[in-house]
Amino acid sequence: MSAPTEVPHKGLITASLMLATIMQVLDTTIANVALPAMRADLGASSDTINWVLTSYIVAAAIATPLTGWFSERYGRKEVFIASIIGFVAASMLCGIAWSLETMVLFRLAQGVFGAAIVPLSQTFLLDINPREKHGQAMAIWGAGIMVGPIIGPTLGGYLTDTINWRWVFYINVPLGAVALLGCAAYLPHMARRIRRFDFIGFAALAIGVGALQLMLDRGGEVDWFNAAEIWIELGIALSGFWVFVIWILGTEHPFLEPGMFKDRNFVTGLVFIFVIGIILLSSLALLPPMLSGIFQYPIITTGVVMAPRGMGTMITMIAAGKLLRVVDARKLVVTGLLLTAWSLYIMTGFGPQMDSTLIVVSGFVQGLGLGLVFVPLSTVAFATLDPQYRGDATALFSLVRNIGSSIGISIVTLLLTRNTQINHTELVANISLLDPEFAARMSGQLGGLMQSLTLTRGEGAFWSVINQSVNAQAAMISYVDDFKAMMWVTLCAIPLALFLRKPTARPAD
Fold it and tell me: Which of 152, 276, 289, 497 lies at 20 to 30 Å from 35 by C-alpha?
């Protein structure tokens, strides 16, 4: 599996790999804003349309661990090319879907074929670059991973508004075609290794991961642990993970090689990327609904306001790739976490009447922090790992990152929903003519507003305006509480950097 000293056409290979990676990562968020338009065309309800997202997430999560075995058995290049072809074909089918059932089926196929693209692109970039350039390679890879979800909602909204929601999927066809041509022409062939397939190990892991992702995605819809469904899914997930761990420690040919877990940097990297997924990617899930719901920004404006976040990420990712040669990776990670905590502190000052300045500044600072954390972590995690484990290791790294982000998004969404209800109740309790402060306002500006609305649209219109204001205030307080909680968790994650070791030696490639 060792890579040659100098791989021909490295630039074209890198560009092709990143095009395929961005294509796959975009599909995790690009379809979200198109759901209302899909619901009308596919005849789905507001509850069932979410299966368009759930089916993709669960399928990708289950198929990701298979990446290592398939790539070793059938060849990395062959599996990567097959994944692109299958993903593009499934995207075309999603675009022509005529019912919810067919859409869910095609999204399942899209998730299965797309699962291997991200981990294999990381594996190829590590293989074709010497160790001293791994930092730069991970900077390029990380840029696609982190920037994709940021531009996804904006691009999806633009395509839905200007053309049709089906182009959310059709756009993958030209991107995939270019990536396919480049990969087929220039990707190097890697040595294959005959390896028995551990069905029991895979089944246990697949059941555990699938049940966990289903629980995280469905929890908000069924009121979490007040529903029997969530308890059942949690029990299945824990049972699946328990059986998997016991099985791979005792079987002769395990699905995932336990030898990779002897590498301290890799194990620490897994723990770190799990935490990073929880605390850093959650803010990406909070901002679009906040900007559209409270600030009434259209989709395009939301994308423009969030663009500096992607710019900041790109800047520090490029810089981190070069800095890793002269600066300890742990210092970069700590600096990135401090910048992220600072950005979240800025976000705790958000208010419903402010302009976009704080949003832009905090987003840019957070982007700088993201880049400084992700690149060194992705580099150090694989710096001392034996290359024979790369296929399984990159798949596991991507899986753990996705699970962390799913858990983080579920937690902040749950806190947001419940805190909004609590805040609304507390604010409404103070809206009474018996309250001196409210009575004073009623004799001033609010009284004039009430008189104006009562004369034109009736007294109910005034109280409707008051209720809308209370809803916005309650939601804003809840968003600030979420940002504050993420700030403290980010600060608490800093000591994890101490467990990372500066690489001194590694088995030769």
Answer: 276
